[in-house]
Automatic annotation (TrEMBL):
Name by which UniProt lists this protein: Reverse transcriptase
Length: 104
């Protein structure tokens, strides 16, 4: 929810000078970083479950040879996992916990 609506729900205004973090914590709203991490893990699970000849699996497993210009993004799918602060084995363990599936 928007912070404005959360403040309205709690009954505080900007004049009360209460930090947004306190409002979010009081209502139990999850931080956006956690939500983004969950979405990335869902995407990673989607790629892992793909068959070996699917385009997404081949693209994920492909290593590009040579150098790439600095302005272009290289292997975004692997960088998303690294950027989210999750190592690949750790992501597999997290997905097992989230989904309860053994084949990951």
């Amino acid at each position: 929810m928007e912070t404005k609506m959360l403040r309205w729900t709690v009954g505080v205004t900007r004049l009360d000078r209460i930090r947004n973090d306190e409002t979010h914590q009081r209502l139990g709203v999850a931080p956006i970083a956690d939500k983004l991490r969950e979405a990335r893990l869902r995407w990673y699970d989607h790629v892992l479950r793909a068959s070996g000849d699917s385009v997404r699996k081949m693209g994920f497993n492909t290593d590009v040879l040579g150098k790439q210009p600095k302005k272009l993004v290289s292997t975004p799918n692997k960088r998303l996992i690294v950027r989210s602060g999750v190592t690949i084995p750790e992501a597999g363990q997290t997905l097992k916990k989230m989904t309860g599936q053994r084949f990951i």
